[in-house]
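Write out the 3D structure for:
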Amino acid sequence: MRGAKLMVSMSLLAACVIAACSKPEPPEKERPPEPKAASEPRHTELRDAIQAPIDKAKSVEKTTLDAAEQQRAEIDAQTGG
Protein backbone atom coordinates (compact mmCIF):
# COMPACT_ATOMS: atom_id res chain seq x y z
CA MET A 1 0.00 0.00 0.00
CA ARG A 2 2.79 2.33 0.89
CA GLY A 3 4.45 1.68 -2.46
CA ALA A 4 1.25 2.57 -4.32
CA LYS A 5 0.95 5.90 -2.46
CA LEU A 6 4.57 6.62 -3.23
CA MET A 7 4.02 5.89 -6.93
CA VAL A 8 0.95 8.16 -7.03
CA SER A 9 2.86 10.92 -5.23
CA MET A 10 5.80 10.57 -7.60
CA SER A 11 3.48 10.61 -10.61
CA LEU A 12 1.78 13.80 -9.39
CA LEU A 13 5.16 15.39 -8.71
CA ALA A 14 6.38 14.46 -12.20
CA ALA A 15 3.21 15.88 -13.76
CA CYS A 16 3.71 19.18 -11.89
CA VAL A 17 7.35 19.38 -13.00
CA ILE A 18 6.43 18.68 -16.62
CA ALA A 19 3.64 21.29 -16.53
CA ALA A 20 5.99 23.87 -15.02
CA CYS A 21 8.57 23.29 -17.76
CA SER A 22 6.17 23.55 -20.68
CA LYS A 23 6.34 26.44 -23.14
CA PRO A 24 4.31 29.42 -21.89
CA GLU A 25 1.30 30.52 -23.89
CA PRO A 26 1.66 33.81 -25.75
CA PRO A 27 -0.13 36.71 -24.06
CA GLU A 28 -3.43 37.90 -25.46
CA LYS A 29 -3.15 40.78 -27.84
CA GLU A 30 -4.23 43.94 -26.11
CA ARG A 31 -6.57 46.41 -27.71
CA PRO A 32 -4.90 49.75 -28.19
CA PRO A 33 -6.42 52.46 -26.01
CA GLU A 34 -8.87 54.82 -27.66
CA PRO A 35 -7.44 58.27 -28.23
CA LYS A 36 -8.86 60.70 -25.72
CA ALA A 37 -8.70 63.63 -28.11
CA ALA A 38 -11.43 62.06 -30.22
CA SER A 39 -13.76 61.38 -27.32
CA GLU A 40 -13.42 64.59 -25.31
CA PRO A 41 -11.75 67.96 -25.91
CA ARG A 42 -8.92 68.64 -23.49
CA HIS A 43 -7.24 71.94 -22.76
CA THR A 44 -3.66 71.55 -21.79
CA GLU A 45 -1.25 74.08 -20.43
CA LEU A 46 1.04 73.65 -23.40
CA ARG A 47 -1.70 74.25 -25.95
CA ASP A 48 -2.91 77.30 -24.00
CA ALA A 49 0.65 78.66 -23.85
CA ILE A 50 0.99 78.28 -27.61
CA GLN A 51 -2.46 79.68 -28.40
CA ALA A 52 -2.20 82.79 -26.16
CA PRO A 53 0.29 84.73 -28.35
CA ILE A 54 -1.67 83.80 -31.48
CA ASP A 55 -4.88 85.19 -29.98
CA LYS A 56 -3.05 88.33 -28.87
CA ALA A 57 -1.60 88.84 -32.36
CA LYS A 58 -5.05 88.49 -33.91
CA SER A 59 -6.49 91.16 -31.62
CA VAL A 60 -3.54 93.51 -32.30
CA GLU A 61 -3.98 92.97 -36.05
CA LYS A 62 -7.62 94.00 -35.87
CA THR A 63 -6.73 97.09 -33.82
CA THR A 64 -4.00 98.03 -36.33
CA LEU A 65 -6.28 97.58 -39.34
CA ASP A 66 -9.02 99.65 -37.68
CA ALA A 67 -6.52 102.42 -36.88
CA ALA A 68 -5.21 102.41 -40.46
CA GLU A 69 -8.75 102.66 -41.85
CA GLN A 70 -9.50 105.57 -39.52
CA GLN A 71 -6.27 107.33 -40.55
CA ARG A 72 -7.13 106.91 -44.26
CA ALA A 73 -10.56 108.35 -43.64
CA GLU A 74 -9.07 111.38 -41.83
CA ILE A 75 -6.55 111.95 -44.64
CA ASP A 76 -9.31 111.72 -47.25
CA ALA A 77 -11.42 114.19 -45.25
CA GLN A 78 -8.54 116.71 -44.98
CA THR A 79 -7.49 116.47 -48.63
CA GLY A 80 -11.01 116.44 -49.95
CA GLY A 81 -10.41 113.20 -51.77
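The longest helix spans residues 45-79.
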